[in-house]
Specification:
Number of helices: 11
Strand order of the largest sheet: 1-2
Strand content: under 5%
Order of helices and strands: HHHHHHHEEHHHH
Helix content: 55-70%
Radius of gyration: 25 Å
């Protein structure tokens, strides 16, 4: 059997085979790559020599998503979360446990030290945060992905999107774009965790021993929810950016997510409703926060959101 070698016909096959073999045990990659390349080449050849590029695309489309094919080669049962979502699940869980969880734990430990608590209390609080928050991260992320798996709208599911070779990632320096996207994932997830944590833990304590939120508690009856929704959408889109090539559709979704996050946050700052008034009064004493602080904060938020949108649009055009 021969392999594809005609100009313009080998690129898709090489990318498809690479996507399959990188998800199976290293000891089998060489044999599987050779077998799969030969199978694709023979099938394309059997379709006739008139348009080998079109035949190659047709064959790869019929073979389906390389992630699903790799799961078959690896013989791994993935039942709760199927092979279509499992890679994204593992990547996001890794970011949460190795980046977000340690950051939240460190912030809590620092605040405990500032409050004057002893070493045993600080260590106990840190261990408790790791166990409780880590368990919640695993549980809730698993529930979300399990529900998505059973929604019927995943690639390859009846009624769902059909996989095409256009979804194959471009050849690039390993991990370059993925590292940037996962850094964005960690940052946005950390913001979500801190917003929720400061409300549930009330880390700031006055001299009288009263625990306070840092952000205005009134936000939880209104504007904080679109902010959290926008951040959650940005986390999901960052994960997609790490595993998929930029597209116009992805850029449009990023514009929407940035708007949902940025505009309510800018409005909150404009109305001076960001911080808990009791927290500000205790921190500032008799000093009043100048209006220019909020004006600059609003401008920084809007400029940051606009830059994020422009970067995503530039990636899509490239």
């Amino acid at each position: 059997m021969r392999t594809l070698s005609a100009p313009g016909t080998g690129t898709l096959t090489d990318r498809y085979v690479a996507e399959v073999v990188r998800r199976i045990p290293a000891g089998r990659r060489g044999d599987v790559a050779e077998e799969l390349s030969a199978t694709i080449a023979d099938t394309v050849e059997a379709r006739g020599p008139d348009d080998p590029a079109a035949a190659e695309r047709e064959v790869l489309t019929e073979m389906g998503d390389p992630i699903r094919l790799a799961a078959g080669y690896a013989d791994r049962p993935l039942t709760l979360i199927g092979p279509g979502l499992y890679p994204a699940y593992v990547r996001l869980l890794t970011v949460l446990l190795l980046a977000v969880l340690p950051a939240v734990t460190a912030v809590g430990a620092v605040l405990d030290v500032v409050d004057g608590r002893g070493a045993a209390s600080v260590i106990g609080g840190a261990v408790g945060t790791v166990l409780s928050l880590g368990a919640q991260m695993i549980a809730w992320l698993t529930v979300v992905f399990a529900l998505a798996e059973r929604s019927g709208r995943r690639p390859g599911a009846p009624g769902g999107a059909v996989w095409t070779p256009d979804e194959l990632p471009e050849s690039r320096a390993p991990g370059k774009r993925g590292a940037v996207a996962y850094a964005g994932t960690a940052w946005h997830a950390l913001l979500i965790a801190l917003i929720v944590w400061q409300h549930t833990a009330q880390p700031y304590r006055t001299e009288e021993g009263v625990h306070l939120d840092v952000l205005d508690p009134g936000l939880w009856s209104g504007w904080i929810w679109p902010v959290l929704a926008g951040l959650a959408a940005l986390v999901a889109l960052d994960v997609i950016r790490a595993v998929r090539a930029p597209t116009r559709a992805l850029a449009v979704w990023n514009v929407a997510a940035e708007a949902v996050f940025t505009l309510p946050l800018a409005w909150i700052l404009y109305r001076r409703e960001f911080f808990d008034p009791a927290f500000l009064a205790d921190v500032n004493g008799g000093w009043h926060t100048p209006d220019s602080f909020y004006t600059v904060a609003v401008l920084l938020v809007l400029v940051g959101g606009a830059r994020g949108v422009m970067r995503r649009l530039a990636e899509a055009r490239a």
